[in-house]
Amino acid sequence: MVQLKNKLPCILAAITLVLTAAEAASASVRGVAPEKYELYKASSDGTWTCLDGSKIISHNAINDDYCDCVDGSDEPGTSACPNGLFYCANVGHIPSTIKSYAVNDGVCDEACCDGSDENGGLITCPNRCKAVGEAYRRDQSSLQQSTLAGLAAKEKLIEEAENQVTLWEEQQIKLEDEIILKKSNMLRLQRELKVLEAARTTKKKTKCQSNVLEIDTLKHDITILLKELESLKSILGDMKRDHNHNFHDMAVKSAIAGYDDFMNRYEGIKESINDDVANINVQEPEEQEEEEEEEPTIEEETIDSKEEGKHSFAMTIVEKLESILPDVLKKSLLDKLVPIVKNDNKKAIPHSGISNEADVENARKLYEAADSEVDQLTAELQKIKDDLAIDYGTQREWLKLKDVCVEKDEGEYTYSLCFLGDAYQKSNKDSTRTFLGKFSNFDDGNYKTHTHSQGTRCWNGPERSVKATIECGVNNEIIEVSEPEKCEYHFRMLSPAVCQRIQESTEKTTNNKPIHEEL
Ligand code: MAN
C-alpha cells in the first residue's frame, strides 16, 4: 500500500503525458495550418461541422478521402475535394498552400518543398526545403540590395526633377515678363514703322497727324507721372503726420522740410503745368496742303521748329517739376520722365518729319527683329509650359528619364525604347528601322506599364504598338522583348523609377495556380 502511495505521482504524470500526446495527435490534421487546428476539433459527441456550416459529419470522416463538405474543408489532406486547400509546412523555407487536388497526384509540387503533398506511395518527394530556403534567402537579400540601390537612384531622380521644375517655373516667370517688355517694344517699333511709312507716302498733313499722336502720347505720360507725384505726395504727407516726433532723425526732418517747401509751391506749379498741357493743343501745327517733296520746304522747316517747340514744351514741364520737387522725389520721378521725353523727341519722330527709304527700311528691320524675338521667346515659353504639363509620375520620377533611350539586341532585331518617347525595331541584317510607336500613356496607377502606340502599320494588320512593363532595377534596361500578337510587342524592362520599399511576405501562396513541376 505504501509502495503504491509512493508511486502515485509517477503514474499520474505518465497518464498526463499520454493524454497530452493524444490531444496533440488529434489536434494536428494533415493539410491544415497550425493556426487552424482549433477549427478541426471534434465536438463532445464526436462530430464535426464543415467550415462553411453546410453539414455535420463524424469527426472520423475528416481526410477519409471522401468529399462531404461543399467547401471541401473536410478533405484538406487528400485530393477528394476539387476545391480544398492543402497546407505544407515547408520547415526551413516558407509555408505554402496549394489546391488539394494536387495532393497525391504523383507530381512533387514545387510549392511544397518538404514533399508533404505526396504521401500516397505513387512517388517519393525529397525534402528540398533547406536548399530552397537558402537559395530563396540569398535571392531575397540580393533583391533587397538591388532594390535599395534602385530606391537611392529613384530618390536622385525625384530630387533632380524637383530642381528642374523649379528652374522651369523660374524661367516661365522670367520669359512672361520679358515677353511683355519685348512685345511693348515691338509694338512701339511697329508704330514707328507705320508712322515712317505713312510719312513717306502721304501728304505732310499726315505727318502733322502723326505729330499730334506723339503729342498725345507725351500728354498721357505727363498725366501718369502727375498721378504718381500725387501718390508720392500722399506718402510723404502720411510720413509727416505719423512719424515719431520725439525721435529726432535728421533724414526724416530734412525730408519733411523739403516736403513743406515743395507743398508751398506745388499748387501754383501744378496749375502752370496743367495750363501748358492744355495749351499744347493751340500750338499744334495747322494742316498743310502741299505734296511731299524731296527737300524740306519752308513749311517743313516750320514744322521742324514746331517739333523743337514740342520738345521744349515737354522739357519745360520736366524743368518745372525738377524745380519744385523735393530731393526724395526728384530721382524716382525724373529718372522716368526724362528718358521718355528725350526718346520720344529723338526716336519716335523723324527730325525732318519726312522719312526716306533708308529710314523706313531700318525701322522695318528693327520691327521685324523685335517681332521674331517675341515669336522665339513665345515658343520657348510654350515649350516650358508643355514640359510642365506632362504627367511624370506621382513624384515626377519619370521626368529626368524622358527621352532617355535603351536598346536590346534580340538576334534578328535590335529593339530600342526612349522613355516617354519613341520605340523602334531595327533589323540586324540590313539596319532598316521600323517605328513601333510613340509614348501614349501609363497603363496603371503605379506608372509601371507604358504604352507606345501609332507605330508603322503592320501589313494586313494593326498599327504597331508596345506595352512595356517595368520592374525595379538599378539601371534602365530592356530585359527581353516578345511579340505575343503580330505587331504587338511586349518589352520587359528595368528602371529605378518604379522601385518601391519591399513588403515583407511571410507565406507563399499558390491558391489560384498550383505549380506542377517535375523534379
Ligand atoms: C516585320 C517585323 C515583325 C512583324 C512583321 C509583320 O517583319 O516588324 O516583327 O511581325 O513585320 O509583317
- Biggest sheet overview: 8 strands, mixed
Radius of gyration from CA coordinates:
46 Å
Our count of domains comes out at 3
Shape: elongated
Distance between the termini: 64 Å
Keywords: Coiled coil, Disulfide bond, Endoplasmic reticulum, Signal
Organism: Mucor saturninus
Biased composition (Acidic residues): 284-302
InterPro entries: Gtb1-like, Man6P_isomerase_rcpt-bd_dom_sf, MRH_dom, PRKCSH, PRKCSH_N
Mind explaining what this structure looks like?
The chain is an alpha+beta fold and 519 residues long. α3 runs antiparallel to α4 (250-283), α3 runs antiparallel to α6 and α4 packs antiparallel against α5 (298-324). It is 49% helix and 14% strand. β11 and β12 (488-495) form a beta hairpin. It folds into 3 domains: 23-127, no CATH class; 163-389, no CATH class; 399-501, Distorted Sandwich (Cation-dependent Mannose-6-phosphate Receptor, Chain A). It has an 8-stranded mixed beta sheet. It has a 3-stranded mixed beta sheet with strand order 3-4-13, with no helix packed on it. The protein has a two-stranded antiparallel sheet with strand order 1-2. It has helices at 2-27, 129-201, 204-242, 250-283, 298-324, 327-348, 357-389; strands at residues 47-49, 56-58, 85-88, 96-99, 405-409, 413-418, 422-427, 433-442, 449-454, 465-472, 477-485, 488-495, 508-509. It contains 7 helices and 13 strands. The model is unreliable at 12-26, 284-310, 347-351 and 504-519 (pLDDT under 50). It binds alpha-D-mannopyranose. Residues 425, 434, 458-459, 483, 486-487 line the site of alpha-D-mannopyranose (MAN).
